[in-house]
Amino acid sequence: MGFMNLFKSIAGHDWGVHPADHKRPACDVQTRQLPVPPRVYLMLLQHVGAPARPVVLVGQKVKKGELIAAAHGNISAPLHASTSGTISAIDEITAPHASGLPGMAISIDTDGEEDWIETDIPSDPYALSPEDIAGRVASAGVVGLGGATFPSSVKLNLGRRSGIDTLIINGSECEPYLSCDDRLMRDKAAEIVSGIRLMLISTGAKVALAGIEDNKPEAIAAMQEAAAGFSEISVVPVPARYPMGSDRQLIIELSDREVPSDARAADVGVIVHNVGTAYAVHQAVCLGRPLIARLMTLNGGAAARPGNYEVPFGMLVSDLIAFSGGSKGDIAKLVMGGPMMGSVLPHARVPVVKGTGGILLLDAREAADSESEPCIRCGSCVSACPMGLLPLEMSARIRNEDMDAAVALGLADCIACGCCAYVCPSRIPLVQYFYHAKGDLYERQRAQLRGEATKKLALQRQERLQREAREKVEAAAKRKAQRAADAAAAAEAARLAAHDDAKQGETA
Amino acid sequence: MSTAGTSSARAGSGLTAAVIASPHAHGGNSVSATMFRVKMALVPATLFSFWLFGWPSFFLWALTILSCLCFEALSLRLMGSRRIKATLLDGSALLTGWLLALSLPPWAPWWVAVLGGLIAIVIGKQVFGGIGQNVFNPAMVARVALLVSFPLPLTQWVTPLPLSPVAGPDFVHSLRQFLTSAPLPDAMVSASVLGYTKTELSRGIDLLHSLSSASAPALSWLGERSGSFGESASLLILGGGLYLLARGIISWHTPFSVLAGVAIPAAIGHQLDPAHYLSATTHLLSGAALLGAFFIATDYVTSPNTGSGQIVFGLGIGLLTWVIRTYGGYPEGMAFAVLLMNALTPVIDRLIKPRILGRDRKGKPLSIPETKES
Ligand code: SF4
Ligand code: SF4
Predict the structure, then answer these.
(1) Rounded CA separation B373/B357 (Å)
(2) For the segment A218-246, what is each residue's pLDDT rounded down to a tens digit?
(3) pTM for the full model?
(4) Cβ separation of B306 and A387 shorter than 8 Å?
(5) With an 8 Å Cβ cutoff, is B301 touching chain A?
(6) A18, A248, A385, best to mutate for ligand 2 pocket (most atoms within 8 Å of CB)
(7) Ligand 1 atom 3 nearest Cα
(8) Which among A212, A328, A366 is positioned nearest to A275, based on CA atoms?
């Protein structure tokens, strides 16, 4: 590999990293089903946007696929029962996040019947109008399954409104260990292609480019075969390199367009959707099935049976581990998502959500952390950063609590991909610094917004008071004028009366 | 929770708490592994130099390194550091000592080694705050300080033993030579090419004559010539440098631009006036050109962080080296050039930054393309 590096370093900027992918053997094992767990916990917020609002009551019986919480607001997604049973509670459970903070969830005591609701199957899904497709996608609760969990219908509509020309399908799956997208492409290529066709109709894009990393030859072959009859869909192998699956990187790789930092992909005429999302769109539109389960990769040194599993949403991670064959040895670190961007789970009693692509049971060797040393300014993080940032400078500013300087260096453009920390020889937890600083900024922005809101309220109140005072004065003036006028009128009347009297007197 | 007070309290804990943020994988690179590879790259040239210059050079090498390690430990101790052992094990002090030794005259006496270690570690590194904080390359700080303070012992070169008319000293004699700093035996003293031509030019003898005279020092790719201890074996230094490039420890930007910075003006000068300007080959093979380009200018801490910045930095070092060698008072200018450019590194880093994706070079977001087919 040595002289390849030399060549690459001469050839140009070699962004990103090439981590050992650890995808095999898990990706070669056939997808397995799991028994229905005794209870599922469906988080009301498992998408970007506003939490869904429950539309069921405790004690109510629900069928598989039944709506249990409705979308709330412009950016939100509805939630459906992932299996049949009885609603047992609507309360808090630990959210699948490193913070260990709770979130609201609807729990269902399952009955094991797996009794589906009636589904509405259109006779020709490809003849539906773009709006209708997006509407069906919205009511099926489909969100971006690549991990971003942005409501898919919103993106489809945005694409149509912005007049995009290219739909990019992300099948790169660049995170090590994960292979759920790989497995899905190998097994369900035809369905994915169907989903892509529906998304093309819905967005009005003319072509779809499906980018798949070249370390997944089976998936590429399957997808190429499935897409063979559709000239508007091309399957493009892309080099395996992390983070190829990041939107901006994939857009450059496939369409040679660079998204301005303050703009959205749609602004340069593209929209990116994950292959899992394409599959979910197919299920939603062609079969009328809401999004209630997905493929997840269970992997890591401590996983007894690594592989891909079809998991209903709301299943506890502990159930998932137990039902899939348990763990071997100690689990040193439990991670939801991939090793580069996933989050550590506080414990296993958290439910899986729509964005869960995998659960990693890392053993002591994989999780080994070593003490961090001072930065030696080696610049490795600079050349690894796919965004062209200076991680060493930003982290130095953040260490000194100088958030403004970190922002000036481009903190807001950081996608938290972890390349910098991955290569750092001093093992500085750079991403931790960036998360911390972003959290701090968020707090500050909120405080500022709140401050502005308070100021605005105060201003409004002041205006109101002034207006009232002014009105009072005006009213008083008016009254005074009125009184004066009345008095004058009275005097005039009196005078006239007197005059009349006099006249009458005269005439009399 | 939302007040400024609590958010900064959280700020405190957020950074000191156990690392839970991603990534949960690491490429496996470490400071000590990197330093180890650099040392591996230096081994062949160093061994070859021991063979060329005998026991005294070995003593010098060993004592310089020892001195650096001791002063590193001492400084850390005085500053109450809890990471003395870990810091010594990262190998950076050892590397500093090694590079300093390679830049010294091979028969320099013991006190040069000790004093060099003191200056390099204490003044060159620890007063700035230790590893990663120093502005100047510690080895070059020591090299220049020694050269300026003790010009004589720092410019006394010896003929490589295999070329020498007299037999090299044995172990005991060598040790005595090293410890007593007795004057070098006359038969061993020789000038380097750069020193010799500079002296001759100042005596009014131009290069055409001085270099063709019988007393001119040899210039050899294989290093059988007088010069400082580590820089003679040009081919081996070059090989070590290429190894570092291949392993991705250094990138091509710095070394190639240093060499280009020396070679281009040298070639032009030599073309115009061969009587007064040495050829590019002579420049590249002389003094610390190769050692400096691959091992000294590439020091992580004191060089810019971006490829383009490193090109500016390297060209600056090369050009300054050539200027000092050609017009300055000292025959060799690499160490001065490195220090001068070290001082400019923060400026280069401020001015030359990578372009952020989605932004232009100035940091403004790219403009949204207007043309879109409807
Ligand atoms: S990779 Fe680590 S040690 Fe190297 S410059 Fe970046 S932060 Fe510093
Ligand atoms: S600075 Fe941000 S975008 Fe750049 S490598 Fe680090 S985590 Fe990724």
Answers:
(1) 25
(2) 999 999 999 999 999 999 999 999 999 99
(3) 0.84
(4) no
(5) yes
(6) A385
(7) A375
(8) A212
Phi, psi of A158 (to 5 degrees): -60, -45
Residue B278 near residue B90, CB atoms below 8 Å:
no
Closest CA relative to residue A125, chosen from A234, A293, A288, A291: A288
Residue range A252-305, pLDDT digits in tens: 999 989 999 888 899 999 999 999 999 999 999 999 999 999 999 999 999 999
Does B14 have pLDDT greater than 50?
no
Mean pLDDT score across all residues of chain B: 82
- C-alpha span between A153 and A271 (Å, rounded): 12
So what's the architecture of A371-508 in CATH? Orthogonal Bundle (1.10)
pLDDT at A1 over 70: no
Yes or no, beta carbons of B21 and A339 under 8 Å apart: no
Centroid of ligand 1 to alpha carbon of A25 (angstroms): 33
CA distance B356 to chain A (A): 4
At residue A4, the pLDDT reads: 46
Helix locations, A375-429, DSSP H? 380-384, 391-399, 403-408, 419-423
Q: How many residues does chain B have?
A: 374
- B59 occurs within a structural domain: yes
Using 50, 70 and 90 to split pLDDT, how confident is the model at B374? very low
Q: A401 exposed, middle or buried (CB, 10 Å; 0-12, 13-18, 19+)?
A: middle
B200, containing H or E segment: helix B193-202
Angle subtended by helix axes B138-149 and B92-103, to nearest 10: 40
Predicted confidence (pLDDT) at residue A500 exceeds the cutoff of 90 = no
Strand ranges in chain B using DSSP code E only, listed in sequence order: 157-158, 189-190
* Mode of pairing for the β-strands spanning A166-171 and A207-213: parallel
Cβ neighbours for A234, distance < 8 A, ≥ 6 positions apart: A207, A208, A209, A210, A227
pLDDT for residue B201 is more than 80: no
| DSSP string covering A329-367 | S--SEEEES-TTT-EE-S-S-SB--TT--EEEEE-HHHH
pLDDT category at B37 given cuts 50, 70, 90 is very high
Cα B179 to Cα A391: distance, rounded to the nearest angstrom = 48
Taking the centre of ligand 2 as the mean of its atom positions, its distance from the CA of residue A463, in whole angstroms, is 47
Residue A375, chain B, CB below 8 Å: the answer is yes
A259 lines ligand 2 (CB under 6 A): no
Query: How far, in Å, CA of A21 to CA of A215, rounded?
Result: 9
Alpha carbon A209 to its chain's center: 22
Q: Specify the pLDDT at position A10.
A: 45
Structural tokens at position B75: 């400084």
Render pLDDT for B205-251 as a digit per residue (tens, 0 to 9).
Answer: 777 766 666 555 655 555 556 677 666 778 888 999 999 999 989 99
Looking at the 3D structure of chain B, how many domains does it have?
1
**Of all helices (H) and strands (E), which one includes residue A209?**
strand A207-213
Q: Which ligand is nearest the CA of B133, by number?
A: 1
CATH number of residue B324's parent domain: 1.10.3430
> How far, in Å, CA of A429 to CA of A427, rounded?
6
Instruction: Write the CA distances from A380 to A409, B14, B306, integer angstroms.
Output: 17, 25, 10
Where along chain A do its domains lie?
371-508
Binary contact (A413, B356; C-beta < 8 A): yes
Q: What residues make up the domain containing B212?
A: 33-350
> What CA–CA distance (Å, rounded) separates B6 from B132?
32
**What angle (nearest 5°) sits at the alpha carbon of residue A406, between those of residues A401 and A408?**
135
Question: Can you point out the beta strands (E) in B164-301?
Answer: 189-190
